[in-house]
Structure formats: C-alpha cells, structure tokens
Design a protein that fits this description.
- The protein has one domain.
- The chain is 56% helix and 0% strand.
- It contains 4 helices and no strands.
- It is elongated.
Length: 91
C-alpha cells in the first residue's frame, strides 16, 4: 500500500500556509521516504530517495494537486458536466 494517497488527501488546503508548516510537512514526507527505502540512515540525503521513489517535494506536490484540481474543474465546466452556463468559446 502506498502512503502517497494519505499525504495527498486535502493537500490543496495547504496552499498558502506558512513556511514553518511546509517545512514540517516536508519532514513528514522525508521520514516516509526513509521508511520506504530500507537501509538508509537518518542523516543520508533525502533528495535522491525522493527521486528514486518518483515523489515530489511538499511544495511541488501542493502545486501539482492544485493544477490537477483546476484542470479537472475546467474540463467539467467546458464539457457541460456541471450545472450552469457553459462558457462561450471562440469569441
């Protein structure tokens, strides 16, 4: 089971939080990466671990989730899957 869905849950609500809270979130992500890759010591560099796992940093992760949410909303509106007026295209 991957731990990423749990870290991603509600991550869009972290947009705009103070730096000290982002640092805390990044430390949680770093600890999870160290747990996933066995044989790593506490003070080993984490960036190679995140790259090996194909994980984004906390700030990149929040930006990505916001982009996906925005794109999904835009597609839903333009395809008529949400109630309301459809935007005029090509004007």
């Amino acid at each position: 089971m991957s731990s990423m869905p749990r870290l991603d849950y509600g991550s869009t609500t972290f947009a705009g939080i103070p730096t000290y809270m982002l640092d805390w979130l990044q430390s949680v992500l770093n600890a999870a990466a160290r747990l996933m890759i066995h044989g790593r010591r506490k003070f080993d560099r984490v960036t190679p671990l995140l790259q090996e796992l194909h994980w984004l940093s906390a700030t990149e992760r929040i930006k990505f989730r916001l982009a996906v949410l925005s794109f999904s909303a835009a597609v839903a509106v333009t395809s008529g899957r949400v109630p309301g007026k459809r935007p005029a295209l090509g004007h």
